[in-house]
Specification:
Shape: globular
Strand content: 25-35%
Number of helices: 2
Oligomer: single chain
Radius of gyration: 13 Å
């Protein structure tokens, strides 16, 4: 698991639904034994916010919707964003978190 990967996320509880998420935590965290990672859900609509980033022509993320992700519920690696998009996500995260 690496920063910038897109995964299917499926908690086993009901009425939880499968979501598609982008991993945001550092590779050091992702490669560790830690059970919880940091990410955000992919959105189908533009969040209409300066802190939103288009991932491609279909999906967006908002750096205001960060969440913990349990490693065991990441069920299928779908894709990985390109370097330019990762840089845009990083810039939006720094702005959102004042880093």
């Amino acid at each position: 698991m690496r920063k910038g990967e897109i995964w299917a996320y499926k908690p086993p509880t009901q009425p939880a639904r499968e979501r598609t998420v982008l991993l945001l935590s550092s590779d050091g965290v992702n490669e560790s034994e830690r059970p919880w990672l940091i990410g955000t859900e992919l959105l189908e609509d533009d969040p209409q916010d300066i802190l939103g980033v288009a991932l491609d022509s279909r999906f967006w993320i908002s750096t205001l919707f960060l969440t913990r992700l349990y490693r065991g519920w990441l069920v299928d690696r779908i894709a990985e964003i390109d370097q330019q998009t990762q840089e845009q996500v990083d810039i939006a995260l720094r702005a959102a978190l004042d880093l």
